[in-house]
Amino acid sequence: MPTNLQPSTFNYLWWQTAVIYQIYPRSYKDTTGNGIGDLRGVIDKLDYLSQTLGVDAIWLSPFYPSPMKDFGYDVADYCDVNPMFGTLADFDELVAEAHQRGLRIIVDWVPNHSSDQHPWFIESRSSRENPKRNWYVWADQPNNWLSVFGGSAWEWDEATGQYYLHSFLKEQPDLNWRNLEVQEAMFNTVRFWLERGVDGFRVDVAHFIMKDPKMRANPPAKEGLAFHRPHGDYDSLSHENDKGHPDTHKIYRRFRTLLDEYSQTAPRMAVGEIHIFDWDEWATYYGTPEAGLEFHLPFNFSLLKTPWEAAAVRRVVDELEAAIPDWAWPNYVLGNHDEGRVATRFGPEQARLAAMLLLTLRGTPTLYYGEEIGMSDVEIPIEQQLDPFGLRVPGWGRDRCRTPMQWSANPNAGFSPEGSATPWLPLAEDWRAINVEAQLEDPTSTLSFYRQLLAIRKENPALRQGSYAPLEGMPEGCFVYQRSEAGQTFTVALNFEPIPQRLSLNGKGRVVLSTHLDRLDKGNLQSFTLRKNEGVMIQMQNAQ
Ligand code: NOJ
Fold it and tell me: For this structure, is 140 an active site residue?
């Protein structure tokens, strides 16, 4: 274990003070010229990540062997690297090189389903008598459960005369977690990556793994429910029986025990993809000290569902602060490979403000690649779209947020070498202007802003781990809060509106960063003006 990976001097663990950066490997950096990013591409960018940008951990979306029906979330071998992305030796080098720079590595673990090309499923569907038959979920009759990606969740298997369950594509059969052999085999895949030195796991649709053992039908959705984003037929049912059975928690307690064993040498973590918006139910995925801990962080997706208005955003933050157990640690997310990009959702003027919010709230932030240069969603003509979700459920296409990282104004935006195959998804039209190289030279760029924001966060314990307190009496349209720790206080003032706003703050302070990158004023804060769409961080004098 390199010495630069010791817990911080404040005794917080790395995953509490870290900024996590998500890399979608297909789209980050192509070193072979096949138009698809790879692990060596990530290795090439480690200095950018650790030094230029200044993040602390990277989460890699799946790079495992896969027929790529769901771009890697259909895993055909949990313990290898897809040749398209490199080799296990490349992965080992990536871990070693990352650790040398103090960067942690989080890998994606996809326990709910494998690919239909996984040898376990090939065996399972080979006959009803096969010893692996019960490794997946088979039934004589389908119930009314639906696939997230559209249509029934059951697929008829002609050869053996039964249906199998697939909560996503039919090429992604659900594993039967009630089978102890499956549990053991899947935990062995976790051990495999822990032994290779990974620091953590992001667990795909973590709450899906245990279903109602009686496989009861889902009742109709409750009348009058407002959906943040209508999801076709899937919304017609209340998903009470097809996921999130209480037995799910037993599995994650075992998972945590396994991580804790390995944490004796270096602290490991798990962040669960939990799309649950009832706070109390969401918080159960932390586990409890009495019954057993579960996830270090259940992803908090609430900001993705909240209207981009000061009062609504504040409400969500306050709700999280109220819901989270004292001993547990919060986290926030504004984007990922399944969601629209921030600059497109909130508009380019608000994108920096969103970054300031994400990186100054109490808790671990997860940043999506490309947000640091303000990449936008790319409208992709239907004939070029590849994402099976979008092709099956209109409006849910995710290609738009997975386009190649824009590194430079060189051919292929510096993503693929000159003369390569065409990148797997089209580049954004603005790549000649919006790219890392151009923004590094421009002190007013979004990248320059992110670099300063990340550096200030890293230098100041109040921002990394301090308390959170919202300030009252602020103008409508502004969200203002303080972060304090050990005599240090920062006020973060965010103007969500396209009009200037006057604030009256107590005390004196110094602006250390504005989203507009053009002020460092200090003094009395009695009458303080935020310009339209401006966010500022103020270091307070005489902090209480
Ligand atoms: C959630 C992942 O984030 C998404 O990309 C994937 O399609 C589904 N899980 C199925 O694995």
Answer: no
